[in-house]
Amino acid sequence: MPATRKIRLGVSMVGMGYHLAAWRHPDASAGGNMELQHFVKTTQVAERGLLDMAFLADGVGIRFNDRPPGALSHTCKNVQFEPLTLLSALAMVTERVGLVATASTTYNEPYHVARKFASLDHISGGRAGWNVVTSATDMEAQNFGLDGAPAKGGRYDRAIEFVDVVRGLWESWEDDAFVRDKASGVNYDPAKLHILNHQGEHFRVRGPLNVQRTPQGRPIIVQAGASDQGRELAAATADVVYAAAQTLEDARAYYQDVKRRMPRYGRHPDQLKIMPGLMAVPGRTRQEAQDRYQVLQELVQPVVGLGALANYLGDLSEYDLDGPLPEPKDRRDHSRGQIFIDMARRNNLTIRQLYLSIAGGNGHRTVIGTPADIVDAMEEWFHGEAADGFNILPTWLPGGLEEVVEMVVPEMQRRGLYRTAYEGRTLRENLGLAYPEHPAAAARRAALSQALGSAAE
Amino acid sequence: MPATRKIRLGVSMVGMGYHLAAWRHPDASAGGNMELQHFVKTTQVAERGLLDMAFLADGVGIRFNDRPPGALSHTCKNVQFEPLTLLSALAMVTERVGLVATASTTYNEPYHVARKFASLDHISGGRAGWNVVTSATDMEAQNFGLDGAPAKGGRYDRAIEFVDVVRGLWESWEDDAFVRDKASGVNYDPAKLHILNHQGEHFRVRGPLNVQRTPQGRPIIVQAGASDQGRELAAATADVVYAAAQTLEDARAYYQDVKRRMPRYGRHPDQLKIMPGLMAVPGRTRQEAQDRYQVLQELVQPVVGLGALANYLGDLSEYDLDGPLPEPKDRRDHSRGQIFIDMARRNNLTIRQLYLSIAGGNGHRTVIGTPADIVDAMEEWFHGEAADGFNILPTWLPGGLEEVVEMVVPEMQRRGLYRTAYEGRTLRENLGLAYPEHPAAAARRAALSQALGSAAE
């Protein structure tokens, strides 16, 4: 009997939690975004909850304009640890939870990225994941000699080749290349070293990578793009996708579209786990859950709410907060902006109501209720071809995650929807993904099997 | 009474130790260069020995040609952990020892480097150091779209500006910029945020850095350049220099030259600690020390010895191993090559004798003897204006370092030349270097003091 399909869970560790006012929560450590112990605690809670992975979003620069003035200095999304260094440290205080770091393909070199994630995979015993992003903001571009971000098409063209080079570098050494025979003095078998010699439109990279093949064969690749180019990149290369959707219909359309694109890359739909963001706020009663959420909602200052909208819709501070959302005149080319506009139109929201509706989940689905309510909501999408799992967006950290682990996870387990122990040692094993055989080893195996077949004829 | 000047000690953790045959040592873990526990043990031994810092050399690519063929596959200098990820992990299993990672200014962007070292400094509680290198090999260049390394002058021009940008980014936030007042919702004081807006010949970087000012104010800067450009960069910016010299005269000339260049950058010579490499091989008797060294010398295969010479002098495999060193026809522009030639000429060495003489220290000073012999040798340079301390190059790891910690350190302590406990929590404190006041805070303090002076008149 095949194992029942289980819901996958990740957690986003950005800021002090996903809610705009997270750092002001009465029980939060206000400076936790720069405190190592805050992240130690958070990843340990994630592991206690048997989550597949803890995920660190990232920007190569502050990604938010101070618009309206004061917006930036009233949030905590200004400073943070660099993800690869932080997750390497956290690998030492956790055993099983996956560690997914964001790295930009627009402002990096593939050789560095290949090395760092390979190194994290070794350090963590096979728990590394790379969240591939193309860095959309002009603020980041200005830290790398540009006036603004390159156009989306160009960024994605580069990203596709970038991922290709990184994957090629990860195959520099076969699994058993290192003999390390002290007696003969042979350290590696030269036949099992493969020089990449990549020559492409954006990159010329000789290789080999100076890191041994990693415990997962290669680190897990995560993608979050919602645009057409993002979907294509995900279908071609991703093991996990973090999606954003508010409704079952949108989530299902996205899910089916991405999975339908996979066969053209020779991939089976099961090889990609789609995990939409989910802000889950549990309470023993619905009222308790609402009260918990309301504590944070009341801490959202107008300048911060307007700042959150300004990232996608431009500065709206000249309009009446309690009036309707005007047609945005400074809209950025970002799918999140459209989600916000749809939310406002669908529910006839004022500007204040709109920023309060996104203050928690920033456009991701939000479920506030009993553990049963939350797991019902998960099941609907999980069984409705809309999700393989969820990327939990805790309101604040670590408390909001502790609530999910203590209340929601047991309900998922009770229904047989979630693991009761980690299945494997590596992130890949826990995600139920196969170990990627080295292409040269696969070719040798195929040749041998053909030769044996011919001999038998 | 002022504290007596103490000898500083660092340790190089490259490969499986500095000796070419380190990985073949009978007690070594042959694959330790890719084993996390090997490095955990090594840094913990360094900390037991109260060393200032553990240092990880690095190349962005394999830096050794397979010349003569087989040279590469018979050494372990082919794969390694990426330094910033590894040292972040090691920060979690050590308390006091400094953690110095190498990063190239030629193939990186200053924003990434500034972030990653700032992050490591936070993770380690103020123990991060950046070893600034310009990456001399063509093999590294070929991983970044080039056919060969840029000329040295250009690399150093870029390095000088690069370090300047990184230091500017590290001053994005004043020490007390983050108010994090939950009641008012003010996270930081905008007056204490400084946008760099760097526009230079090689870089345009707006800033600010998205990492809070670090426990050391800024990470320690380490340099190892021996050339004129390297010395100038060290005099201008370095806190620590790893030098390479064989003789007291050469070491003293280097020491005095670099320190003499400092005042033109407004720096006092005490602000830079010069720590030549020292391969120290202790034994209870001189014979025991020699025997220990001989174990490794006998494991050096000719192909590996020739390979080590080939990096600097070209492939000499067509010559008689037991004949004299010919005039090199394929010499690389590297100061280490000249050291090798001088060694051969000074002692009339055959090719085999030359590679055996560099098999351990690779051109660095080597002292094989009793702890008293080794500390005598240290004192000669330390009191002879040739060294502020030493970068210990263990023959193999962790054993070669354990011998130094167990035999040499106690002798240094007995003579009052070395600490008996760490003086501070940060690398900067342990090196006896002052905390760098933020320039804006310094300017405010100066203005205030002037205003008070005027008022008193």
UniProtKB/TrEMBL annotation, chains A, B:
The keyword Flavoprotein applies. Keywords: Flavoprotein, FMN, Monooxygenase, Oxidoreductase. Transmembrane segments: none annotated. One of its GO terms (molecular function) is oxidoreductase activity, acting on paired donors, with incorporation or reduction of molecular oxygen. Pfam families: Bac_luciferase (PF00296). The keyword DNA-binding does not apply. Signal peptide: none annotated. FMN binds at D58, T102, Y156, S227. InterPro entries: Diverse_substr_monoxygenases (IPR051260), Luciferase-like_dom (IPR011251), Luciferase-like_sf (IPR036661), NTA_MOA (IPR016215). Residues 21-382 form the Luciferase-like domain. Belongs to the NtaA/SnaA/DszA monooxygenase family. NCBIfam families: FMN_nitrolo (TIGR03860). This is LLM class flavin-dependent oxidoreductase. It comes from Falsiroseomonas algicola.
